[in-house]
């Protein structure tokens, strides 16, 4: 970020929390991991004056009356000029640029948590699907889920729904949350989860076994052996598990707080058990990737690279000289992709590498 007063660039840093429950690295002060790609401003919304907050008694007195409010004419005329403007979209990430003589290079694991789920569950369909690194994993997943032979027939909306459903499973989202996210009914959300579990029986079995093990051990372990204690779970508290071929681990009745607060709490911790293994293992893989890249860089005398942002399963470096960016990209692909061998993973870990002058204008490198 340019600082004209000092004639130098301002460097923004954040605090990284490494001692989190799942092992995931989280940033704060400021949270640079949450900087959006784009922010849009719609001038037409200025025409509508927001209603002031009312107390319950005021709401009662206004019952049946027109509660809509208008701007005073002088303000309305001023705002009307703004509403004629085109909507504005800004890119906050463009403010973060490489220092002079440097270039930014990002390396992002492709579908990392989905690949971890495939490895841990050993679901034969997912494993086969993710061997094809050149294909869009979520299109393949949607085609399987919707029982279509051609992944190219999948629309962007269907792909997005499959992606949301997949991560709903990974993050332990229950039917209620899925229903709210997609503006559908609870039975419809439960049906989506059930059909997904039926399509990927290995995933359903993995979740079931993880929950059973979490009750027995009161803890879970990531792929590197990191332990998360789940003291609320005890062997006596586990729910009766169905022996059906493709169980749906989280039925709607489990999460209804009005039925039993204790059952709702149990369901929450059970979902945390599954999520902790997948999210924690993703953190393990990314940390090892950082170490491998650092070790490889020490052997390179003609490249200087600094890790400037940890973005969960993406790493961003500033690299100099910029002419060495292609060589550094090769190092990133080689070292990060090979992490799967450290964990004996059943799926490849493809890495997408991009480069550019600022965070917003990163372009994929061949």
Automatic annotation (TrEMBL):
Domain of life: Eukaryota
Gene3D superfamilies listed in its UniProt record: 3.30.70.370, 5' to 3' exonuclease, C-terminal subdomain
Name of this chain's protein: DNA-directed DNA polymerase
A Gene Ontology BP annotation from the UniProt entry: double-strand break repair via alternative nonhomologous end joining
EC number: 2.7.7.7
Entry keyword set: DNA-directed DNA polymerase, Nucleotidyltransferase, Transferase
InterPro entries for this protein: DNA-dir_DNA_pol_A_CS, DNA-dir_DNA_pol_A_palm_dom, DNA/RNA_pol_sf, DNA_polymerase_A
Pfam family, one: DNA_pol_A
Catalytic activity: DNA(n) + a 2'-deoxyribonucleoside 5'-triphosphate = DNA(n+1) + diphosphate
UniProt keyword Nucleotidyltransferase present: yes
GO molecular function per UniProt: DNA binding; DNA-directed DNA polymerase activity
Organism encoding this protein: Hymenolepis diminuta (Rat tapeworm)
Top class in the EC scheme: transferase
Domain DNA-directed DNA polymerase family A palm span(s) in chain numbering: 89-323
